[in-house]
Amino acid sequence: MSQSVQPSAEQFLALTLENDTAATVELFEQAGNWQERYRQIMLLGKSLPKLDDNLRVESAQVRGCESNAWLYHSEIDGKHYFIADSDARIVKGLIALLLIACNGKTSNEIGAFSPDCYFTQLGLQGQLSPSRTNGLLALAKAIKVAAE
Amino acid sequence: MDLQTLRSQFPTLAQSNDGYPLCYLDTAATSQKPQQVIDAMNHYYQYDNANVHRAAHQLSARATSQYEAVRDKLRQFINANSREEIIFTHGTTESINTVANGLTAHIKQGSLILIDSAAHHANIVPWQELAKRTGAVIKPIPLTQDCRLDIDAFEALLQQNPAIVALSHVSNALGTVNPVKELVSKAKQAGAITLVDGAQAIAHLNVDVQSIDCDFYVFSGHKMYGPTGIGVLYGRFDMLDSLSPLMTGGEMIKTVSFEATEFNQLPNRLEAGTPPIAEVIGLGAAIDFIQALPTAQIHAKERELLNYLQDALEKLGDVVLYGAHKDNIGAVAFNLADEHHQDVGILLDQQGIAVRCGHHCAMPLMQSLSLKGCCRASIGVYTNKADIDRFIAAMESVKELLL
């Protein structure tokens, strides 16, 4: 991805996500109903920092989202880092789920990552359908392409 | 016919997801189809399938007579003057493109085209393209604060003698109704060609094109309980006859030679290629379905239900309604406080509620409301009070999660 504006390496490295994939899947497996699942999604969304206004630009927008979603990528020392945001809270939470799985990972790890399996494990497989306008599928593809 | 029997004719509605029965409030996007429409299309493919208008065999004769009978039904349904004034298209979008393209030679550099600010993109973009081709100028007809067409501003714009006035009968995003008869009459006095997009009106109102007196009236089959892939272009005969065809090819010609080709007469002149025969037959069944209903009673019931929906949303609190008037048709547009419409839509979907969330193909309208988008709940002949109550209960849960 070549963008006119780009966050600094420090900004990319600053993102720390509390949960790893296994803990996240466990968290969602424990959720008793959809309300709890979506409450968790929104909490995860809150853990992602708000993207600076100067980075909320069209060149960073991921197409296929009804809401605005922005994605930045940088490869640092053989690992892939992402900064992303959305103006919709649930979409932002879904992005956080993707970043938990992919941020700071190598090309091989991201190449082997299956969004289908992951979101099925989370009980959110429906959100990945191409007919959805949440843009999750487009975001997952963009992350995979960036890490190729 | 009681409402329960009526509803049971729509097989799609009898499903649930994760224990939540489907609550379909997206009829303005596309209506569900009654069994008789599905059966009519199946029957055609099983027993009567042949191309129309050409072959010298019985099967084709049967297909052709069924196909052409729908044109007669439509003439009567919207009270057109003659059957030649009914053109089959693939939908409202193609109907408007056919007109906007066909009028190219009529429009001059600097000609004015007025467009309803609440129009669907299908009633905006074809005119923009016409303007690009001809050097015509487009001006939106503004809305009042309460999202109705601003009649004073419209009259002022008419002083500039527009060549074309493009209106919606019912706004797809808001459900507001335009007084099209009055607007068309004013536009005609100013010498304009008039087109009315009836996509959101045709299933909910009695449409009489001679009474509206517009030059063109367009709608889709799939929003009136018929199949997708079929639409109608009504035009006054002389107006239709003056359109240059958008598409050329088979069916629409009288003679073809490499020196010169002569086009056929209406309606064939504007129906190039093999038409969507099964869809036309399905549309015919949809008209039969609508006409068998006690129309006045159904319209009153839909009005009552929409008002109930508007009131219930209002009572819920923290909900903003847009252009919600008591005389609206079919749809209500809203947002939940400052929440993103998509978040609301995702959480409603979890509970089996189907609504549309987005810009509703009316970005200029969203811009004039300073919105990124909104949610729209829309009803049809099969919608009942329980659907509305379920939707409101689901909205309560959404509120609890988001606010």
Quick structural gist:
With 148 residues, chain A is mainly alpha-helical. Chain A has helices spanning 9-14, 21-30, 34-47, 89-102, 107-112, 115-121, 136-146, and strands at residues 69-76, 79-86. Chain A is built from 7 helices and 2 strands.
Overview of this protein structure:
Chain B: This is Cysteine desulfurase. Chain B: It comes from Shewanella schlegeliana. Chain B: It is an enzyme of class 2 (transferase). Chain B: It catalyses: (sulfur carrier)-H + L-cysteine = (sulfur carrier)-SH + L-alanine. The complex is a heterodimer of chains A (148) and B (403). Chain A has 148 residues and is mainly α. Chain A contains seven helices and two strands, in the order αααββαααα. Chain A has a single domain, classed as Sufe protein. Chain: A (Alpha-Beta Complex). In chain A, strand 1 and strand 2 form a beta hairpin. Chain A is globular. Chain A starts with 8 loop residues before the first helix and ends with a helix. Chain B is of the alpha/beta class and 403 residues long. Chain B starts with a helix and ends with a helix. The chains are: A mainly alpha (148), B alpha/beta (403). Chains A and B meet through helix 3 and helix 4 of A and helix 12 and helix 14 of B.
List keywords for this structure.
heterodimer, A: 148 residues, mainly alpha, Sufe protein. Chain: A, two-stranded antiparallel sheet, 7 helices, 2 strands, 11% strand, B: 403 residues, alpha/beta, Aspartate Aminotransferase, domain 1, Aspartate Aminotransferase, domain 2, 14 helices, 17 strands, 39% helix
How many separate structural domains of chain B?
2
Query: How many strands, which pairing sense, and closed or not: the largest β-sheet of chain B?
Result: 7 strands, mixed
Average pLDDT of chain A, rounded to a whole number, is 89
Mean pLDDT of chain B: 96
Radius of gyration over C-alpha positions of chain A, nearest whole angstrom: 14 Å
